[in-house]
Amino acid sequence: MANRRDPQTERKLRPLYDALDNLNNKQAIQRADKILKKEKDFHCAKVLKALAMVRLMKTQEALALLDEVKSHFPLDESTLQAMSVCYKELLQPELIPELYETALKYTPNSEDFLTQLFMGYVRIKEYKKQQQVATRLHKLTSTTAYSYWNAVSLVFMGKENPDLGKVMCFPLALKIIEKSKEKSDEVAEEVFRLYLEVLELMGKSEKAIEELEDPKNVIIDERERRRLKIHFHTLLGNTEQCNILYKQALIAEPDCYDSYKGYFDTSFRLLTDSTSLHDPGFQVDLQKADTSVQQMTGLLLKLSEEGGPARGPELAKADLVVRLQEKDIEMCAFASSSLLVLEYVQKFGHKLCCYDDLRVIIERLKDSEKQELIQILEEYRISVKESNGTKAMQRLATLHMLLHHLGKYRALESEQQFIALEEIKNFHNITLEGDLGCAYIDAFVLLYSWQKCDSRNKPDMVESIKLLMTKLEQFPEASACRLLVTRLYEYLGAIGPAVEVYNGLDTKSIQLDSLAHILYPSLIPLGAYNRADKQARQMEAFYRTNEREVLEYIVKSYLCGKFNKVSELFDLHRSLAYSISKSVFLLDKLWLSFILSSANSWDQIETLLEATRAEITSVKTDNLVDNRDYSVNEVCDSRHLEIATLQASTSYTHDTLYVNMRHFMLSSLLCLQDATSNKNGANLDTIVSQFRSDVMEKAANLPDLEGYPIYIMVSQSMKVWSVYLETFASIVTDAKNLIQHCIHGSSTQFTVENVTSKISELISRTRSELIVEDTINSSKLPFLSSLIQTAYFAVLCHSCVVTGRIQRKKRGVAEGVMNSMKTILSDIKSLCEDCHSIATNHKLENLTIDKDDSVDSRITSSLEWSLDEMSGILGKLSSLVNTLHSRLQPKS
Amino acid sequence: MCTLRPFTCKDLFRFNRVNFDPLTENYGTSFYLQYLVNWPEYCTVAESPSGQIMGYILGKSEGQAEEWHGHVTTLTVSPQFRRLGIAHTLMNQLEKISENQKCYFVDLFVRVSNDVAKNMYKNFGYSVYRQIVEYYAGGNAPHSPPDEDAYDMRKALSRDPDGKSLIAKKKLIKTNELFSN
């Protein structure tokens, strides 16, 4: 930050910069104050003090200081630069351009200010203004780079407004690029790509192809050039040319599978002759498109002969046969699809990728073909089972995965299924002793555990955990096993061991966003409130830093001329700013600030409400983006795969509802607070009716997750919450009625019994879910956490009202409300105590309890820990209610 | 069998299965962006027929005059897709780009204890140029590995037919000397 300053200023500010660079913000404020004592109008020192404040989260004070400096129209570079840094860190880049606009009024020809202004507009997507600044810069300096900035700005302007683009922006951008192209002998790759993009936008694909074929333009490598040519020929509908180019690509790289897909797609579109006999004298013609089955067959055979051990041509044979079957064309030159799959397994089955390769084939087979394939593979499996050696074992793993994918084991009777499972388990034991790689053992142990856990029988799950843990001790890097154990522990309500196992993955940085669907959704339901709070706060900082950094890389893209990265980076910026997980984290953080506070007075609660009011407006609830990576669950049963594809959308719906529910809880609290102070409660009706239609109705229609395979189960919390949502609406409506009745003297009758009876019902419901015949159903622990949060919400809403004016006006009503809250809390407390005593007696449902058994005892102690955490929250809440209640008593 | 394509920002959300590998570093977002913005041509993903990320390479070109070279920053392949020649394909791609950029050589760093990687690079034509003392910093956690030396391995490109770039003045250097160069 400290560049290009005059030496005297530099000397004065040096200690301040040092403190900021060393992240010692308090010291920076002290040093700034020291300088400002001597020189009270030292703008730069003030701004640097503001920066330290921003970093200490003293946002309001920082903004006030910045406004003060801004009112003096600062012109020196250091101050402007420091102010820009402040606005970037405050995530308010829209305030930067104004600074430089003002500065440029005094020094209109400053290249540096113009550049800063251009970048200021880039950050906020003000394309027109950035284009105007680029023009000014180019006129001022005649630098070519600025003319490209101009062209790129025009392209974005045109994309935003296609009509304007067609008549003005794109032709102008093209003119600028062509002009500078003429001037230089060799243009940079990025400029050439920009040129192609403009040609595409103007519909000039022929010209683009011409340029790509021009030997002068060697800047792009052969593969990329071919890819671009195919792209433009596709736009022109030149299927024949595309086919020729794909064929050339295959001759150059016979193992690149993407080219096969393109080659087949285009050949089938051009198909004129479906004779499938192979012509032995066939010659590949690289100048003409292939329009017959014979030509396709001929090419594959040639590639297969010349490709040596390459998998590409072999897989492509099966692909061709499947495509012909789909079109009811009989294939004579090659064997049936089942036999080709078998051949493939015989050749490449010892490679773990074999299963992934064949997925693209077997997923397209008809049911009858699948049955035929199961039979063929099963026969082969029996023969392989008899063989020894590593390769045979590896081939066996592939066969098991394929047979699972085809659903072979699902069709078996339970006893046969058991035998098949035992066989897999035995192989797993053998492989543990052998020299197979970790990945193969993963395959066996996962196959076993997945099937075993599908029943949701707890002893089976415990057995699977044991097996998976043994595996993890030997191969700590077996990530798929780690994920599954985490999931199983979560399902069994044991958050402690789940966290411990998951920590072994050592996830960080952007993984925390893309893997937010793993573990985090269980934390609050299982009582790990502090850990959830820690993660939510950590993630808040992550998004803040990353969104800011991505914007700076967009600026960087312009500076180093990598224009085609600009859109991609803006997409990334949006993915982070609108990440569904971000909204979950931010809202949970706000909610947990209540749950985890030791607030013992209404003043303290009000402080939390004010903090919520300041932050909630920045939380996005619409158009959320799902960045979560569902592919981390390695599955190979086709039924599971079908569900896995459903998972993404289900999980998205769940979490959107969750976001809206949390948003409702917090915003209705704020509205209640407004309503008690002086404003009416009209907003509350809207909020409640929106909540009913947007959250409650949709939550009630969520699919039943009990049918989901355990390892890909999405956040189950919304299904649990759906039981409590009706009560939420009642709590808010009753609180509103209470206000109207007591403050505005409306005739609306208020009875706190309405809410208390609803919560009492929930207490019995939770009790019956949790306690089954003197045992605890630990999987249902989330019900208890939701119940406690519902009680917390009821206390907050009603206290909001009774600690305000009603306290004085209608003491009797307030007394009644407080007494009811106390009764609810004491009922929940006794439920917690009952659960606790059952848990300590180790009476977990369906678990064979062996005190020396690590898995069982870990589940039990984790359950006790969760109950303690939840009781702790309840204890604090009771003490808050007692304090609030005692304030209602007349002073003796 | 794979498809090579440019590494894009979207891949940051999708490379988890590759990055679960304990020897693959998870960097901060800005580290990846630095490469994607400055050297996009050096960042390539290998994708399987079913669309999974099999592995990726990140690199750059840097240096002055005859030290102008391609550098491999990260090369990683998911355990499921190992022993298929993916690493070789990705390295070839990076070398080809370095040739296009008129580099003299390609270099990379590898832990001295990582025999598998060292032998793999030897097979690709790389040789140990020098050893850098304590290049890899150990962690503070009880189980984290101690500080470790790195081998700086190089392979000459066509612009250096005599392999001049492979002859080191000093066979053993300290990490700070590396950055002062």
Report helical residue fraction of chain B.
10-25%
| Largest interface, chains and sizes | A-B, 56 and 43 residues
Shape label of chain B: globular
User: Number of folding domains of chain B?
Assistant: 2
State the fourth-level CATH superfamily of the largest domain in chain B. Answer: Gcn5-related N-acetyltransferase (GNAT)
| β-sheet strand percentage of chain B | 25-35%
- Strands of the largest sheet of chain A, in order across it? 1-2
In CATH, the architecture of the largest domain in chain B is 3-Layer(aba) Sandwich
Structural class of chain B: alpha+beta
DSSP, total strands of chain B? 8
Global Rg of chain A: 34 Å
* Amino-to-carboxy terminus distance of chain B: 40 Å
Oligomeric form: heterodimer
Radius of gyration of chain B: 16 Å
Low-pLDDT runs of chain B:
none
Low-confidence region ranges of chain A? 843-847
- Which CATH class of the largest domain in chain B applies here? Alpha Beta
Shape descriptor of chain A: flat
Broad structural category of chain A: mainly alpha
Mean pLDDT of chain A: 88
User: What percentage of residues of chain A falls in helices of 4 or more residues?
Assistant: over 70%
